[in-house]
């Protein structure tokens, strides 16, 4: 007996999560359609390996030009694709940059979500199309008093966003929930805590650190400049987290879920773990904008680094006008999804540093 092939539409397909999700859905036998922005140069590096020649007989992966700020093209693409599932991952996703372009972020990350939901309604697809909205732990804002009794943020913790990004995403969260309740659309929020990978954008802190670890180890860079080393994040692996997104849309009842590891780590410690992966040990000294890290040992004979070299300095230009100090998520409800992450932080750091060393060695 043949079952009908499922069709998924993914916004943000060229991003970190979009690329892992597309791989997962193709593996599961979906036909995958992605929305890609027009850019003056190619921006498909993360998905080039799964791209299929459009002249082949049965094409399972197709890209459409589009933008979340343009409802006409969102409606047209959804009409053409008739998706069973939409994953709305498209966003201006950088918290610090959102302070520089707040109106744009509101348009893409907030109203963009509304455009998807409205398109589904306008096209009469409420009963056919399931929608995943990429919500975020930034909604919580890291206020200590809003954690639950056990010290975590969960699905019932109050929101207090601390950036234009967080405020735009809170609109996306509530409009998704509202359309679920008002129109009985299967629409869910995944409240995902930070997730990283070798495909993470190079201006997010983890990738900035692993890239610099590789560059410093190979003698291509002297020092890494960072902002606030005192914040804490609950970091998972993007490959695990896209599996949770898919599972959220396969349940009988549409609900919102926190996806997290339940472990939080200081930025400073991520720096330490990253350099340790390359055999470089560090000692931190000083406080806040005067804090630095020096090499105390170099256990890899391949790298000729002097003991005492300062490899990390704080540069306040990377501070945010309002910071989210601490994020730690309670993954209890996600167990209902049968979801279990394969990576821990050590495995994540190992993979990221190895990948960045390989990239830089290839360039050498
Ligand atoms: P990325 O920044 O790697 O990818 C964002 C994607 O959105 C890119 O494909 C980008 O396209 C696209 N995009 C940006 N602006 C627009 C627009 N105006 N119209 C259409 N597409 C647009 O983010 P991630 O993959 O890390 O995150 C995926 C989603 O999950 C985002 O919504 C993010 O806010 C959210 N999220 C991420 C978390 C994380 O830790 N990674 C945690 C919680 C939520 P282009 O390549 O052209 O720039
Ligand atoms: P975040 O991720 O803001 O949590 O948003 P990011 O990696 O940018 O920052 C994490 C923490 O590190 C501190 N930090 C620095 N950050 C950056 N980018 N660059 C630096 O040099 C630096 N130095 C210190 C930050 O102040 C912050 O405290 C990510 C994004 O993926 C969002 O889209 C997503 O919603 C959330 O994670 C969950």
From TrEMBL:
Keywords: Lyase, NADP. The keyword Cell membrane does not apply. Coiled coil: none annotated. It comes from the Bacteria. Residues 9-352 form the NAD(P)-binding domain. Its EC number is 4.2.1.47. GO terms for molecular function: GDP-mannose 4,6-dehydratase activity; NADP+ binding. Belongs to the NAD(P)-dependent epimerase/dehydratase family. GDP-mannose 4,6-dehydratase subfamily. This is GDP-mannose 4,6-dehydratase. It comes from Flavobacterium fluvii.
């Amino acid at each position: 007996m043949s079952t009908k092939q499922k069709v998924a539409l993914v916004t943000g397909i060229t991003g970190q999560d979009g690329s892992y999700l597309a791989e997962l859905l193709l593996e599961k036998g979906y036909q995958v359609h992605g929305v890609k922005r027009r850019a003056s140069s190619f921006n498909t590096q993360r998905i080039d390996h799964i791209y299929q020649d459009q002249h082949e007989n049965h094409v399972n992966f197709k890209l459409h030009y589009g933008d979340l700020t343009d409802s006409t093209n969102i409606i047209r693409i959804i009409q053409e694709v008739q998706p069973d599932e939409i994953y709305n991952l498209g966003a201006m996703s950088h918290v610090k940059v959102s302070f520089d372009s707040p109106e744009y972020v509101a348009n893409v990350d907030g109203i963009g979500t509304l455009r998807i939901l409205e398109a589904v309604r306008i096209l009469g697809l409420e009963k056919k199309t399931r929608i995943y909205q990429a919500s975020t732990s930034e909604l919580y804002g890291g206020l200590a008093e809003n954690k639950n009794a056990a010290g975590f943020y969960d699905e019932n913790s109050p929101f207090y966003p601390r950036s234009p990004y967080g405020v735009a995403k809170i609109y996306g969260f509530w409009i998704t929930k509202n359309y679920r309740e008002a129109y009985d659309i299967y629409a869910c929020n995944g409240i995902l805590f930070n997730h990283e990978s070798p495909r993470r954008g190079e201006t997010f802190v983890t990738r900035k650190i692993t890239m610099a670890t590789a560059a410093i180890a190979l003698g291509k860079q002297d020092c890494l400049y960072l902002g606030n080393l005192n914040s804490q994040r609950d970091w998972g692996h993007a490959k695990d987290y896209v599996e949770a997104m898919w599972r959220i849309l396969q349940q009988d009842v549409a609900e919102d879920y926190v996806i997290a590891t339940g472990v939080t780590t200081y930025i400073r410690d991520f720096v330490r773990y990253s350099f340790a992966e390359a055999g470089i040990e560090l000692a931190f000294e000083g406080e806040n904008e005067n804090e630095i890290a020096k090499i105390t040992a170099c256990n890899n004979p391949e790298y000729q680094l002097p003991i005492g070299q300062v490899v990390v300095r704080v540069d306040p230009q990377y501070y945010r006008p309002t910071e989210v100090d601490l994020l730690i998520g309670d993954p209890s409800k996600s167990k209902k999804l049968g979801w279990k992450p394969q990576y821990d932080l050590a495995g994540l750091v190992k993979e990221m540093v190895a990948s960045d060393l390989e990239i830089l060695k290839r360039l050498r």
